[in-house]
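Journal club prep, notes for RB
We'll compare a predicted complex against what the paper describes. Inputs for the 3,4-dihydroxyphenylalanine case:
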Amino acid sequence: MLDKLQNILAEAEKTAGLITDAQELEKLKLAILGRKGTLTEILRGLSVLPIEERKKAGERANAVREQLESLIDSRLSELKRKALAEKLLKEKIDITLPGLPLPNGHFHPIRQTLDEMTGIFESLGFKTAEGPEIETDWYNFEALNIPRDHPARDSQDTFYLQDDDRLLRTHTSPVQARVMEKTQPPVRIIAPGRVFRNEATDATHSAIFHQVEGLYVDKNVTFADLKGTLTLFVHRYFSPEIGIRFRPSHFQFTEPSAEVDIQCIICGGKGCRVCKNTGWLEMLGCGMVHPNVFRSVKYDPKLYTGFAFGIGVERFAMLKYGIDDMRLFYENNLQFLRQF
Ligand code: DAH
């Protein structure tokens, strides 16, 4: 009996080592430990033995069963590990395949226009400055020679915050005062950014739009410098052939003040719907910095002069690209945006 047990164990060890297939191993397990298995038969035959012998053989048979079970189980997991390793080896990623194409994005036309404008001014030595979109009454109005009770405030419908002192900036001009307060002349900056007005939206108006502010302060800056700079800018942005004129105007923070018109690029100056038959298009405001602005930033107006200007970004972009409705910039319509 004990010999038989020993044989079963030895036989099983030998066969299990040769088997390379998990299913075959399961079959072997069944053949030994299953209901009709060789070991099971032996265990069944124990009942006929005398008590002493039965005890001894029973212990041995149980020990052999445990050994067989762990033998087969460990061989089974070894086979599984091997199979997995082989599978992983076969499934190596082929890095020579081209990747999936990713769609290419690009900048919004307003961003492109801002970059183009700052590029032109930077080539002339202007540095880019920034200011906050939430401004104080002082920087947006007071420092720019627009006192609290002045009717000029009416022209800029303002979004005020809870307190009367803070507001959404109505123009980029407050950056002028912020920069001058911190730096001594010469100052040569542009300030591109977003501005806000409490206005109804239509084809040519938006409550949120963009400006590029410019400021140049030094000794002996003249109106000729202003004309030269803005003429060069307009010629670079549109074309060197385009006609340009400076028309007297009024701004609180400049004296004298002017508005710059360009020859209508839709009709070439003959007169059309876009230029309201005048042949000219209003493009931007400018002028020589008012002495009161210098005083509010503690510059000596007798020592320094300067010019300033404010460009409406949307208007420039619309004329360059022939866009007849400003709202297109803000609607996130991909069919429109993909054209730029
Ligand atoms: N801040 C003015 C506006 O929003 C535009 C402007 C006009 C800016 C003349 C200037 C300037 O710097 O000199 O209407």
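Talking point for the session: The two ends are 92 Å apart (CA to CA).
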